[in-house]
């Protein structure tokens, strides 16, 4: 998502279209998933012809002017495309079937829960020593978040919506008063796209506890203002 969004923004500036080499295996593997989750994104995916394999030779034979992009491998930074945020959000607009499914799940589990939903994304096992989720940091942040919300939202109850696959870790997060309820997203067996949309539909506040997680970054980026 980062790579396409960044290249799309650069392409708009330079009047160019992002394309993938034909043997981009990852894109082929997730083709159906993308069509279901992000149909607008899926419609903009173009592959080079099968016989176009030696990109470097092809470029060396081209006598036109070229621009060498020297950013990170996947341009993993919103600075490349945040100036056109509305267009990027349109590209990554969720499919109607997915939205309907997630809305039904949300209604089933929180139909009577009118509290302010504090969502926390966690990632453990990756980024060790460089930005993985840590219980102590989450608990401290949660205390501060609740203090701020209590000052801004009077007479409001709060519930936690915890994202992450390690339920043992999730249970180490403090859920004392004034937290009234805890929802574990891992229990819902959602796909990646469904999980992103679930966050978009349910979260009132969002805490990214693993700052190197691109999934968490997009979870926050795709949320309403």
TrEMBL record:
It comes from Meloidogyne javanica (Root-knot nematode worm). It comes from the Eukaryota. InterPro entries: Alpha-1-2_FucT (IPR052501). This is Uncharacterized protein.
């Amino acid at each position: 998502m980062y790579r396409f969004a960044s290249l799309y923004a650069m392409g708009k500036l330079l009047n160019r279209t992002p394309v993938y080499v034909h043997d981009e295996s990852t894109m082929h593997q997730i083709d159906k998933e993308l069509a279901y989750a992000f149909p607008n994104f899926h419609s903009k995916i173009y592959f080079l012809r099968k016989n176009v394999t030696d990109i470097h030779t092809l470029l060396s034979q081209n006598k036109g002017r070229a621009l060498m992009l020297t950013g990170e491998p996947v341009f993993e930074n919103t600075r490349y495309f945040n100036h056109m945020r509305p267009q990027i959000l349109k590209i990554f607009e969720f499919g109607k079937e997915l939205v309907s499914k997630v809305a039904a799940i949300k209604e089933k589990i929180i139909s009577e829960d009118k509290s302010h939903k504090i969502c926390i994304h966690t990632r453990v096992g990756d980024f060790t020593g460089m930005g993985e989720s840590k219980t102590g940091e989450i608990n401290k942040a949660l205390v501060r978040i609740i203090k701020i919300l209590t000052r801004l939202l009077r007479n409001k109850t709060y519930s936690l919506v915890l994202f992450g696959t390690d339920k043992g870790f999730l249970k180490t997060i403090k859920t004392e008063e004034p937290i009234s309820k805890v929802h574990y997203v891992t229990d819902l067996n959602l796909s990646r796209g469904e999980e992103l949309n679930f966050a978009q539909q349910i979260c009132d506040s969002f805490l990214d506890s693993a700052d190197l997680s691109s999934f968490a970054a997009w979870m926050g980026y795709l949320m309403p203002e």
